[in-house]
Amino acid sequence: MLRAGATLFVVDDDVSVRRSLTRLLRSAGWDVEEFATANAFLERAPSAGPGCVLLDIQMPGMNGLELQARMPEAGLFLPVVFLTGKGDIPMSVHAMKHGAVDFLVKPVEETVLFEAIDQAIKRQASEATIRHHRDSVMARLARISEREREVLEQVLQGRLNKQIAFDLGIVEKTVKAHRGRIMEKMEAGTVAELVHLCDAVGIQFPKRVD
User: Fold this and answer.
1) Which one of 122, 174, 177, 204 has the fewest CB atoms closer than 10 angstroms to its CB?
2) Neighbours of 99 (CB within 10 A)
3) pTM of the predicted model, to two decimals?
4) Which residues contact 78 (CB under 8 A, 6 or more apart)?
5) pLDDT value of residue 59
6) 188 phi and psi angles, rounded to 5 deg
7) C-alpha dist (Å) from residue 4 to 29, 31, 32, 147, 201
8) Rounded distance, CA 170 to CA 142, Å?
9) How far apart are the first and last CA of the chain?
10) Could you report the per-residue pLDDT of 130-180, keeping only the tens digit for each?
11) Does residue 106 lie within any of the structural domains?
12) Which residues face 84 on adjacent strands?
């Protein structure tokens, strides 16, 4: 269980629910912050550490589903576990389609709640790794010049150096030089690795048949 250093954010307009949840979760080893409204939670500085949001559905003002949609815009990349007494199947389907880890109905068994929280924190760690890798690849792509980008696009299409040279109106020796700089800037040892890096950020070009 990933509890050390993890913070749980309880967002529920029912003060008795917030207090009981806070006591339970703190006794289990988590740090807990509680909020009575969705707006109060959004006003909090984004959290970069491990944790998740325990979120009610029906609240005054912005409801739980609306808050779930707003979180990424606010820089809050935290997994969500819905915990509500007024949910229904359409709500649960909507929540899960938009990335919720679980949709639990009050009252919920302690073991079920704890399992959902642990799963959420594990998912957050996995997604953070993916985001970090993507950001790293994008930073490498930013080093590439416009001409190198043109060469890269053709390399990803499986084009040979002589074909690239013909298409771009340059000599083959220059293409080789561009390819070398691309591999260096992208920190790729092979073309296969280069393709994998570009795939990771959604840059793909279908192979051409001449």
Assistant:
1) 204
2) 14
3) 0.69
4) 9, 47, 51, 52, 53, 71, 124
5) 92
6) -115, 135
7) 7, 8, 12, 49, 32
8) 23
9) 56
10) 888 888 999 999 999 999 999 999 999 989 999 999 999 999 999 999 999
11) yes
12) 105
Listed in order, strand segments (DSSP E) in 89-184 are 102-105
Domain count, the chain: 2
Amino acid at 139: A
Identify the domain containing residue 65 by its residue range.
7-133
Classify residue 210: in a domain, yes or no: no
* Contact yes or no for 112/24 (Cβ under 8 A): no
Coil vs helix vs strand at 9: strand
Rounded Cα gap, residues 34 and 40, in angstroms = 9
Residues 205, 210: Cα–Cα separation, whole Å: 15
What residues does 57 pair with on adjacent strands?
A: none
- Residues 43, 89: one domain? yes
